[in-house]
Design a protein that fits this description.
Helix content is about 65%, strand content about 0%. With about 70 residues, it is an all-alpha fold. The mean pLDDT is about 90. It is built from 3 helices and no strands. The protein has one domain (about 10-65). This is Antitoxin of type II TA system, VapB.
């Protein structure tokens, strides 16, 4: 795992922690990244279904994550 030094505004971090229910900087960043990636997969699924395509990641594991 790579280490990266990033300046994060304290107000944004605190707000993100409140929204995500996290308590540490690391858990907040990881949860935010997970959320962004899940939203991208959800968008891709919606676009595929709307276009009448079969969405390849549409399986039980994906549905469990979406519903969580």
């Amino acid at each position: 795992m790579a280490k990266t030094l990033v300046d994060i505004p304290a107000e944004k971090l605190a707000e993100a922690q409140a929204v995500l229910g996290t308590t540490s900087k690391r858990s907040t960043v990881e949860a935010a990244l997970d959320l962004v990636l899940m939203q991208a997969r959800q968008r891709a699924m919606i676009e595929a279904v709307a276009a009448g395509e079969v969405f390849p990641d549409f399986d039980a594991e994906f549905l469990a994550k979406v519903r969580a």
